[in-house]
Amino acid sequence: MSASSLADRIDALLPQTQCTRCGYAACAPYAAAIASNEADIDRCPPGGAATIAALARLLGRDIKPLNPECGVEGPPRVACIDESRCIGCAKCLAPCPVDAIVGAAKYLHTVLAERCTGCELCIAPCPVDCIEMRAAAAAHPANDAALNRTRFAGHTQRIALRAEERRREIAAKKAAAPRLPADSA
Fold it and tell me: Is 109 within the bounds of a domain?
């Protein structure tokens, strides 16, 4: 089996929260690292013991406890914004890997709880600490790994398109800027 095929099979077992607690930028790079023996199977707190057991079965490895350096296993959680404290800074929007937070600069933000994967990536950038994690229902829709993967792909594609648009805008401005004469001295 090729390394990319194995990585895809490993990725399919991960919860797709894209939380980065494993030390990788997303679930797919973590899966690739496991496939190439650069990472161990014990680094996914959202997946916890069930994911570790599934990875161990797939790879023929021993089951081991979750690496405590990556966090602790817990019940599903979702972000919640205290709207009375939100200042509309928009710093929580970009880090959300599945676009579960909606709002715009200088406007109130809110979390679409049915989309939130509980990754916690929105908490650190909030300058007023108005985001907290709350328990999610056991049948929370964000527990659907395939749907989370699709939303993350959409988020990643939008970020790349915006970056390309920005690059083109800057290039156009540079091309239109008057050139300074070369120093003749």
Answer: yes
